Amino acid sequence: MRIATWNVNSVRTRLEQVLCWLEQTKPDLLCLQETKVDDPLFPMQAFENAGWQVSIHGQKSYNGVALVSREPLEDVRCGFVGELPDDAEAATLGEQRRVISGLLDGVRVLNLYVPNGSSLSSEKYPYKLTWLGCLKRYLDAQAERGEPLCMVGDFNIALEARDIHDPDRLSGSVMASDAERDALREALGNRLQDAFRMFEPDAGHWSWWDYRTGAWDRDRGWRIDHIYLCEELMGLARSCSIHKQLRGNVQPSDHAPVSVDLDWPPADDDQDEDDQLF
DNA sequence: ATGACATGCAAGGCATGA
């Protein structure tokens, strides 16, 4: 099973690039962020004509998330209220469309677009911290169903120095501040692990390059798009890749896709037990 | 310290992103 995530910075502007990459990469599920389109205007037909199913949770101009899959998903849930129906804060935060999840072959895939926060002095920064606190409650509620979890998206947080091209200068600023890092780590708990870091310990691997100041040409990026797996799925992970070349497209998104390959459903290695049945 | 660049909205520059 291949699961991918991509902040496309407008699904309509990036439509041909997304369809092309789907055709080349053939994920079972692609999670999109920043679709920037209200649901009635989502280019649904273009995806369906290419053989994809789409679940959407969008809004006009800003934010917006979607799930693109070969097979239909089960139990699609939108917003934090999808897991926290009686949580007033979850309902308020849901005014910004940033959360969608679905069940694919028994795996709960959760697609997030975490608020950016703008700067430490902005009112958007405490909003980001509040949002991450709600994410923790959301994950606690989700865990009670016992589904294997794959949580992906644009986290707008680089958790470690090795995730930033210039950590000496940028550590402590927004996307790399202690409070937001702590809030994300709280949400991850002991349950979720970064799939990319299971395979690649080194710095120099980025998923986002600023449009400004020639960041792409100078390879000055951040790794802020992540795939987190529960322990059961981590044991079945075979690779995790950042598809950097997409950032070099004409009129690219400022983010590159990230994908993980899982041996799911797990191979039947209980041959001895099966033999005992006969 | 500021702005670079890109997108949406809507028709002139803002709001937003990261």
TrEMBL record:
<feature type="binding site">
    <location>
        <position position="34"/>
    </location>
    <ligand>
        <name>Mg(2+)</name>
    </ligand>
</feature>
<feature type="site" description="Transition state stabilizer">
    <location>
        <position position="156"/>
    </location>
</feature>
<dbReference type="GO" id="GO:0004519">
    <property type="term" value="F:endonuclease activity"/>
</dbReference>
<feature type="active site" description="Proton donor/acceptor">
    <location>
        <position position="154"/>
    </location>
</feature>
<comment type="similarity">
    <text>Belongs to the DNA repair enzymes AP/ExoA family.</text>
</comment>
<feature type="binding site">
    <location>
        <position position="254"/>
    </location>
    <ligand>
        <name>Mg(2+)</name>
    </ligand>
</feature>
<feature type="site" description="Interaction with DNA substrate">
    <location>
        <position position="255"/>
    </location>
</feature>
<dbReference type="InterPro" id="IPR020847">
    <property type="entry name" value="AP_endonuclease_F1_BS"/>
</dbReference>
<feature type="compositionally biased region" description="Acidic residues">
    <location>
        <begin position="266"/>
        <end position="278"/>
    </location>
</feature>
<dbReference type="GO" id="GO:0003677">
    <property type="term" value="F:DNA binding"/>
</dbReference>
<dbReference type="InterPro" id="IPR036691">
    <property type="entry name" value="Endo/exonu/phosph_ase_sf"/>
</dbReference>
<dbReference type="Pfam" id="PF03372">
    <property type="entry name" value="Exo_endo_phos"/>
</dbReference>
<dbReference type="GO" id="GO:0006281">
    <property type="term" value="P:DNA repair"/>
</dbReference>
<dbReference type="GO" id="GO:0008311">
    <property type="term" value="F:double-stranded DNA 3'-5' DNA exonuclease activity"/>
</dbReference>
<feature type="region of interest" description="Disordered">
    <location>
        <begin position="250"/>
        <end position="278"/>
    </location>
</feature>
<protein>
    <submittedName>
        <fullName>Exodeoxyribonuclease III</fullName>
        <ecNumber>3.1.11.2</ecNumber>
    </submittedName>
</protein>
<feature type="site" description="Important for catalytic activity">
    <location>
        <position position="225"/>
    </location>
</feature>
<feature type="binding site">
    <location>
        <position position="154"/>
    </location>
    <ligand>
        <name>Mg(2+)</name>
    </ligand>
</feature>
<feature type="binding site">
    <location>
        <position position="255"/>
    </location>
    <ligand>
        <name>Mg(2+)</name>
    </ligand>
</feature>
<feature type="binding site">
    <location>
        <position position="7"/>
    </location>
    <ligand>
        <name>Mg(2+)</name>
    </ligand>
</feature>
<feature type="domain" description="Endonuclease/exonuclease/phosphatase">
    <location>
        <begin position="4"/>
        <end position="255"/>
    </location>
</feature>
<dbReference type="InterPro" id="IPR004808">
    <property type="entry name" value="AP_endonuc_1"/>
</dbReference>
<dbReference type="InterPro" id="IPR005135">
    <property type="entry name" value="Endo/exonuclease/phosphatase"/>
</dbReference>
<dbReference type="InterPro" id="IPR037493">
    <property type="entry name" value="ExoIII-like"/>
</dbReference>
<dbReference type="GO" id="GO:0046872">
    <property type="term" value="F:metal ion binding"/>
</dbReference>
<keyword id="KW-0378">Hydrolase</keyword>
<keyword id="KW-0464">Manganese</keyword>
<feature type="binding site">
    <location>
        <position position="156"/>
    </location>
    <ligand>
        <name>Mg(2+)</name>
    </ligand>
</feature>
<keyword id="KW-0460">Magnesium</keyword>
<feature type="active site">
    <location>
        <position position="113"/>
    </location>
</feature>
<feature type="active site" description="Proton acceptor">
    <location>
        <position position="255"/>
    </location>
</feature>
<keyword id="KW-0479">Metal-binding</keyword>
